[in-house]
Each structure stands twice: as structure tokens, then as C-alpha cells.
Automatic annotation (TrEMBL):
Cofactors (names): Zn(2+)
Stated name of the protein: Peptidase M12A domain-containing protein
Keyword line: Hydrolase, Metal-binding, Metalloprotease, Protease, Zinc
Residues annotated as domain Peptidase M12A: 24-138
Lineage start: Eukaryota, Metazoa, Ecdysozoa, Arthropoda, Hexapoda
Species assigned in the record: Megaselia scalaris
Pfam families: Astacin
Amino acid sequence: MDDMILTQKQFRSFFTKEGAFAGRSVRGYEYAWPKAIVPILIDDKIGERQRQMIADAINTIASKTCIRIRPATRYDDYAVFITNQHNGCFSEVGFVKKSTQLMNLHPEVAITLQFISMSSCMSLALLMSKVLQIEINM
């Protein structure tokens, strides 16, 4: 499992003596999505079953948080592109001000998270983790 794609600044804030190891984190508005709205584009290669699992994760997040995830439009300057074309499960952390941020949810990856084994990163719990990873600063 690949997990997080960090900018250099995020890496320093997580893994240096001045960062998380000093009791700090990357929380804050710098990486927050504007107005807590996340536009997404779903790769055409993602099948109907995976799309439904993504929708379930998004609906669960919407019911429990202020985060709103919606389809991107041509008027959006930024969006998260959800694909399954790479190995692993990973996404960029927070809003990193790129026109397209990548989230990969490969369906054939076998992973183990502590005591929980999953045969795919397409489980609801892991999907919510990946989606919230893009929202970690809200």
C-alpha cells in the first residue's frame, strides 16, 4: 500500500524534528479545500461496482462531515482524478493547488492495516480513508 503523496513541505511538517515528531501536524487552512468542496473526476475505466463503492464512501462522508464531494465541471480550476490504473492505493494529502490531484484505488491490491486484512483498496473503510486523506485538513 503506497498511501500518501506528500509535498516537500508536508513531508517536513510530518517527519522532521520541527514537524510531527515535535508534536505538530499539517492541520490548517493551507491544505484545506476551498469552502470544503472537492470536485472529482472518475476515470472512465473504473467499473460500475467500484463507482458504487466510491459513491457509498462519499455519501457516508457527506452524512457525517461538512465536506461536500461533487462531480467536477469545466468551471472548476482544481479536481481530484480518481483512477485505478496504477498499482497501490494512494492520494495526495489535502489541497495542494494542482489542477488535477491523483487518487489511485487499484482493485487488486492485497493489504494489511494493523489487524485488519483487506483484499482490495475498494473496501468502504479504506475508500473513506483515501477520500478523507484529501480532506484531512477540514
